[in-house]
Amino acid sequence: MNYEVQLWQDEDGVWIVECPAIPGCVSQGKTIDEALKNVTDAIRGCLEVRRELGLPETLQVRTVHVPA
Hints:
This protein is of the alpha+beta class and 68 residues long. 31% of the residues lie in helices and 18% in strands. It has one helix at residues 32-52; strands at residues 6-9, 15-18, 26-29. Strands 1-2-3 form a three-stranded antiparallel beta sheet, with helices on one face. Strand 2 (15-18) and strand 3 form a beta hairpin. The longest helix is centred in the middle third of the chain and has 21 residues, at 32-52.
């Protein structure tokens, strides 16, 4: 499956990556590639835990238009 993620660089230069559809699913890396690899592992782990707890795997995430 494909999941949308958000990336940003913190003040120390570390790349933070978050999957908005999965609450609490965040990872990081020294490079964008490392952060994306790490969040892939985090997504797998978060989905497994959510299944075990009987929670929905993901939340609905939508894009909305905000007029200027």
